[in-house]
Amino acid sequence: MVPVSCSSPAPGRLGRPALVSAALLGLAALALSACGAEDPLADGGDDDAGAEGGALVVGSQQYYSNTIIAELYAQRLEAGGHEVDRQFDIGQREVYMPELEAGDIDVFPEYAGNLLQYVDAEAEASDLEEILAGLEQSLPEGISALEPAEATDQDSFVVTAEFAQEHQLRSVGDLANVDEDLRIAANSEFETRPYGPEGLQEVYGVEVTLVPVEDSGGPLTVQALLDGDVQVADIYSADPAIEENGLVMLEDPEDLVLPQNILPLVSDSVGDDAAALIEEVTAELTQEELNGLNAVSVDDQASAADVAADWLAEKGLDEA
Amino acid sequence: MTHLMEALQWVLSAESWAGPGGLGVRTAEHLWYTLLALVLSTAIALPAGLVIGHTGRGRALAVLSTGAARALPTLGIITLAGLAVGIGLKAPMIAFVVLAVPSIIAGAYSGVEAVDRRVVDAARAQGLSPWQVLVTVEVPLGLRLILGGVRLATLQVIATATLAAYVGAGGLGRPLFLGLRNHDYAMMLGASLVVIAVAILVDALFIAALRILRRIPGIH
């Protein structure tokens, strides 16, 4: 029997365009998955070195801004003659705090308020001073906090400039006068946070409905705000997207959101002179500087190491 | 083991199922998203797959591109689509369709191709038009493979529909994300267990449906 007309064409004839289209799709897939600016292998070289040989282990959260700060500490320590082992992009406090306690990590950039709430869930501190006092009491043995920086990076209530103007908004409390339903884009945990819908209602008399967008104040959250899908968004205060999109961060006079000043957390292996080096970085880390660092990272897609090196050189901190 | 017990306890407590944000509503949303994604992707992929199977044209392209499309990270598509069309159900729906289409296309053309060529030739010799050959011969005889593709796509979408919650839609992803963010691992694991249960139940329905179909004469 003669083969029917619907047999497959010879593979060789369709091979080339098919391969090209497959390659293009493959590239698209790669582009989609390559969200971060950093080469994940760049700082992986000596990850397994551990804390041996007197090297100070510097860790960071899986958050680009936190990694930049860790890189600042690391490079400053290196400039001061210390050996440094980088253990970056560690997910959550549940994971890295035990490592700090065990002495496997020596230096970690932290955020004052969240750190206190982690080590003491019952803490009732409301300003930076009380937070530091609370940390003094509650930090586990072997870990201490150095002086906090002026810069903070915290959840903040952000609206568009038009919305702020239309309703004359300056502080979070002014939202109570807005005569429409308020929807806020934030991660789902916003629902249960002290500064969530309940806290807003209690402290400022503001009623909001949560629209959970799970990218931690990232591009989707910003887009939802710009599109008018939500009226308010929870965006980290040091996010360059706020300035770039002309967004307005509402003041929080009642400290509903705990101050999250950048705070170097160190283990006992960090001696006085290493601590002094870290504090030199802290002293320069104003809000403006932190926002600038984040903006360079996001806009130029520069690696944390490059961003940190440029900044330290500019401040004259790249040499002992 | 304690995590698992706590998760089961959470799933089995009446409190978790009640209310507008309870598991009952979330499961219904989850099933609705799955159904919607399947209707949309079947509408796109089934005709395409049948045509490829019937004519044999574009087969190599279909094999390669559906294979490559399966490698697309769904979360990446949701984020990209979300930036373009905003938050809500549209962006995840686009991603689910992209996820489901390759399996349905592959099932459809393999189903048609698997039909004995002699039967197809006989049908054509009887004077059946290409359309009649497709509808009365190729589709009924290849139905098991064709539905197999839909079944596979269904499982994939049920397992992935949790990501709808990433951009403000509902579904079983809500308790999953909430548990993750709040370190409430009983809730997180519990929500995953419900997703698994839904997937198994729906798959069992498919198996039952296929069994019934097999009893109908002329269908394989």
Topology, element by element:
The complex is a heterodimer of chains A (320) and B (220).
Chain A: H1 11-33, E1 56-61, H2 64-79, E2 84-90, H3 93-101, E3 107-111, H4 112-119, H5 128-138, E4 143-145, E5 155-160, H6 161-166, E6 182-186, H7 197-204, E7 208-212, H8 219-227, E8 232-236, H9 240-244, E9 247-249, E10 262-267, H10 272-284, H11 287-300, H12 304-314
Parallel strand pairs in A: 1-2, 6-7, 6-8
Antiparallel strand pairs in A: 3-10, 4-10, 5-8, 5-9
Helix pairs in contact in A: 2-10, 2-12, 4-5
Chain B: H1 2-12, H2 14-17, H3 23-55, H4 59-70, H5 74-85, H6 90-113, H7 117-125, H8 130-141, H9 143-160, H10 173-181, H11 185-215
Helix pairs in contact in B: 1-11, 3-6, 3-9, 4-6, 5-6, 6-9, 7-8, 9-11, 10-11
Describe what you observe in this structure.
The complex is a heterodimer of chains A (320) and B (220). By secondary structure, chain A is of the alpha/beta class. Chain A folds into 2 domains: 158 residues, Periplasmic binding protein-like II (D-Maltodextrin-Binding Protein, domain 2); 95 residues, Osmoprotection protein (prox), domain 2 (D-Maltodextrin-Binding Protein, domain 2). Helices cover 42% and strands 16% of the residues of chain A. In chain A, the strands form 3 sheets. In chain A, strands 7-6-8-5-9 form a 5-stranded mixed β-sheet, sandwiched between helices. In chain A, strands 3-10-4 form a 3-stranded antiparallel β-sheet, sandwiched between helices. Chain A has a two-stranded parallel ribbon with strand order 1-2. In chain A, strand 6, helix 7 and strand 7 form a beta-alpha-beta unit. The longest helix of chain A is centred in the N-terminal third of the chain and has 23 residues. Chain A is globular, with a radius of gyration of 24 Å. The N terminus of chain A is likely disordered. By secondary structure, chain B is mainly alpha-helical. Chain B has a single domain, classed as MetI-like (MetI-like fold, Orthogonal Bundle). Chain B has 11 helices and no strands. In chain B, helix 1 crosses helix 11, helix 3 packs across helix 6 and helix 6 packs antiparallel against helix 9. Chains A and B meet through helix 1 and helix 8 of A and helix 4, helix 5, helix 7 and helix 10 of B.
